[in-house]
């Protein structure tokens, strides 16, 4: 529960951020309010707490957002369960009650979802609303419209694939966050080598991962005995010849752009420049696969049979300036959906946090494009679920009804926390909300800006159904798992036999 309380304060549009200071060398500092990032960085000894960290990780990998909500909800479920256990209700009874309640809550949401997939205009505005809701609890909340547009455009270009590899994010300090922009095509954070063509049209690209740094003798740990310097020169000449052959083979592919993941020495670079081929060294180290994917080529490491190597293609390669730096811009790439988002900002900390926030928005949007069901946000879904779960509790005989009631109390923790973080009177607001929700089809939720109950449909606060469903189910399962445990046993370490 300490863990749940730790991330509780980061929930909602007025949630605060945490500064994480690493204990390793370099003492790096991260400023973030992304639940998964915070929990990943904690050193936890308590075994039960690790379960919470795991669910936030899974939530992050699966749907990208709602990492904080999932932990807060699981923490509340456990807190309620603790009271019930103290009242002599068996954990198994609580678990079966929770099971029924979560099923009921999910069905309550399913009845209220909106699906606008057929209507392009409405669907796009849904996506914009979801992006803005996701970003409003992050550092980008000031310029959320700008970034929501970027994210929606980037995801719309994916045409329904959830592969976020082809959206590349480049961070360049300088300027302000509003200077960030989305660029079609692909940008490599590299400079073009000396004496090479600065602009290539209809580029055929060979993406390779091979050593191009052997035109000098580099023999480690081997001894070559020669009786004169001339012999050394001969060896070097042979090395150079080998290099020249390799370059000839590469040129034989009929390419005009060679992108290598490793270093390219001056000599081969010179040969490429003579042949009018643009050679890029040390290309995108983590993303060389991304580069191959985007241009539609494959990564080659041997060049003996050109017919088996798949070349990449793009319409234009040119050098552009962003801020102080020169970058290489590939436009008209084979994979039409590729694009690059260039983030500008005041410092690296701001940029890192902006990237995390944007990543959350991109994940949620790409999931929503696939599963286009949308619900309102701002504590509205929790109220809808709590209302249904309460009714279920009244109908259920026996001890389970206590557990089901507890579940509905735990659901109310999310709107309560949102209100608390904004410095509002949560008890009063949640009571008002509950009254509102007893009317038919109410859209009431917490309007944090005015500090009162507002109409979520008018305010345009929406969330993806998939995210909410993942939060609900993961939190219930995690709580159930911890409840099933009656004690934590630390295993004795293996005895080592004396080897003497």
Automatic annotation (TrEMBL):
* Entries under InterPro entries matching the protein: Chap_CCT_beta, Chaperone_TCP-1, Chaperonin_TCP-1_CS, Cpn60/GroEL/TCP-1, GroEL-like_apical_dom_sf, GROEL-like_equatorial_sf, TCP-1-like_intermed_sf, TCP-1_chaperonin
| Keywords assigned | ATP-binding, Chaperone, Cytoplasm, Nucleotide-binding
**GO MF entries:** ATP binding; ATP hydrolysis activity; ATP-dependent protein folding chaperone; unfolded protein binding
Q: Where in the cell is it found?
A: Cytoplasm
Domain of life, per the record?
Answer: Eukaryota
- Can you supply one Gene Ontology CC term for this chain's record? chaperonin-containing T-complex
Please state the protein's primary subcellular location.
cytoplasm
The UniProt entry's sequence similarity note says:
Belongs to the TCP-1 chaperonin family.
What is the documented function of this protein?
Molecular chaperone; assists the folding of proteins upon ATP hydrolysis. Known to play a role, in vitro, in the folding of actin and tubulin.
Q: Identify this protein by name.
A: CCT-beta
Q: Which organism is it from?
A: Kalanchoe fedtschenkoi (Lavender scallops)
Taxonomic lineage from the root: Eukaryota, Viridiplantae, Streptophyta, Embryophyta, Tracheophyta
